Description:
The complex is a heterotrimer of chains A (399), B (172) and C (202). By secondary structure, chain A is α+β, with helices and mostly antiparallel strands.
Amino acid sequence: MESIALSRQQLDGDHMIVNLGPSHPTTHGTLRIILELEGETILKATPEMGYLHRGVEKLGENLSYQQFIPLTDRLNYCSSIMNNVGYTCAVEKLLGIEIPKRAQQIRVLVSELARIADHIVCVGVNAVDIGAFTAFLYLFRQRETVYDLFEMAAGQRLHTSFTRIGGLFRDIPEGFVPLCERFLVECEASVDECERLLTHNPIWHDRTKGIGAISPEDAVNWGYTGPCLRAAGVPQDLRKAQPYLGYETYDFDIPVGTTGDVFDRYLVRMEEMRQSLRIIRQVLDRLEPGPVNVDDPKIALPSKEKVYTRMESLIHHFKLIMHGMEMPVGEIYSATEAANGELGFYIVSDGGKNPYRIRVRPPCLPIFSSFHDQVKGCLIADAVAVLGAMNIIAGELDR
Amino acid sequence: MIIEHIDAQLPGAVTDRHAFRGDQTIVVAKENLLALVDLLYREGFQLLVDITAVDWPERPNAEGGAAAGRFDVVYHWLNLASQERLRVKVPVADGGTVPSLTGHFKTADWFEREVFDLFGIRFDGHPNMKRLLTWDDFPGHALRKDFPLDGGDPFCMEGCTAPYNNGERAQG
Amino acid sequence: MAEMNINDAVVTTRLDAVVNWGRKNSLWPLPFGTACCAIEFMSMMASKYDMSRFGAEAMRFSPRQSDMMLVLGTVTNKMAPILRTIYAQMAEPKWVISVGVCASSGGMYRTYATLQGVDRVIPVDVYVPGCPPRPESMIYGVMKLQEKIEKESLSMRKEHIARFYESLARQEALQAEKGLTGQQTIRNMLMDAAERGAGTIF
Lengths: 399, 172, 202
């Protein structure tokens, strides 16, 4: 796909070039799309990215493993906790340790909350672009409750940095479980309400059915993962296929679409929200008391009481902060099912305090690179609908 | 498992292998890459998950031998039917090129552009070998180990007291 | 203040007050949303924190129709020329609130790719720190801007906006002369500014 903005001599006199972004209301985040149009029909769509490239991978080589956690928050900023969970699972795989049961359960709980939050943003913002503003307002009320839950657990609404290598930042406080139970009821009602507004709405059908359809073979060839791949008909979900954090013990279904168009993606996300609520229900039922951090002072910080009263804990604390953890030499790739798809971390360690190379595999990069295939032959309004349904989060795309 | 198939059908292609923490990894020379990719595609490894690279500036930059290059281009594949993952590493020298996989996998397009942008490794046969993350006339390749973190930006280090390692590696 | 004509003295001050009152209570934001702060901005616009109480509900994504630009999120060096273009397209009077530490100073990203604060390339009026700032903080930032607008007169803003336009003309001239992209031209201008000891390129 050559950049058509520079090749004006190749242009036919009848074609118009429209530049969408990088500062544009529909580009959620900083993306740029150069559309070559004939009338209103799109002949060619060249996406461009990199407007939010902040140098995270390079910065990771200069920070210790624990210091990288806040940077992971800011990758997919709609569901920050899932990035934290993905990263700390990767480092724990590198270390070869397993975290306590309670920590695994709480990680699953907050991951599913974050997944719901991310799908709320995706569906809400997609609806706003198409013109359905009400769904956005109704759904965002639930996002505020999720923020309250995160603030209770981690002290911060959006960028929680909740997990640590070897467990969690701290245990969930007392008011968390009752508020979570209330959230389960309210969110279910909200999802039903949103479905009543959109799913059988003929305007929604006109705007979203048949737009951006992709076949399963093409989706796999393009490297899709996550809801877009499942909407295309491929039942791939890492929580079922390669379970981690005890997902094999929970009872949930994976929604799979048929055509991969915007309507299917919307339905897949709505159903995934319901399944996430189901998983949260099961976690709350079986949450067992216990430690939330690995009992190894070479990996997890000792508690403050011990640091203030015992000499060896003080020394462990000092060594962990100043000299970092003792890492084995090697490389691993660890992937979790984030809200957008397979979020992978490839970490190469040379035994030092900082990673030698840390690579974040963004789930939405392959999806965005296939934009031309999805909107070829459609109208500009359809390009807007597809852009919303892909859920491109620039923080994760560009890192 | 896939590595046995590779050894059977492309004998001698795999120059090094390990399975650290259960991740199957093989190292192949770039001449064998396309043949390997054909084999992998037939065996069901049809989801190319990731292409990236790692810079090892201290490695000998000679042709031939096990570590014949400064960079390792790293590919990750996933077999959707058997849920098996495979990592393939291809060493390449500074200034060398690697065959592009855009003919087989459309997803390779942007991943290879990113590797070119951040490391300077070119891919033969890529339709649009341009920078992806940085701007068109960005001086240098950002993720190489000899590229400074602040990119020469004086405002980055102005009044900065955060202890960056200055490139020192702990002896672990 | 500027020219004080005895006949006009009392009337000018009152005119300033009325005009400023009108302006501060109908700030139409242009959300220049790049990253996470834009999500907190969305929360601020939603019903719980509700920016429309301050007259700022009419979010206009077009620079021609808005007067307050909220820079929400990290601005990278690749994005810098676009930020300048958008700021130049806004009609005066215009104000900029830099929301979040990434926009104010580069945030935690002290790297080759991130602009270390948008005040290097455009004039900023209010900085709201936080990563991301809570919606209440952003509302407080808007209130601070309202206080600022209340006190300023019509002529006070001309100078630094004029300097900005002059720097934009300089940037375009350099770009045309050397055939570089906007990003590289701004980088060169920033390096020159650093050598001179100036903090901004305008």
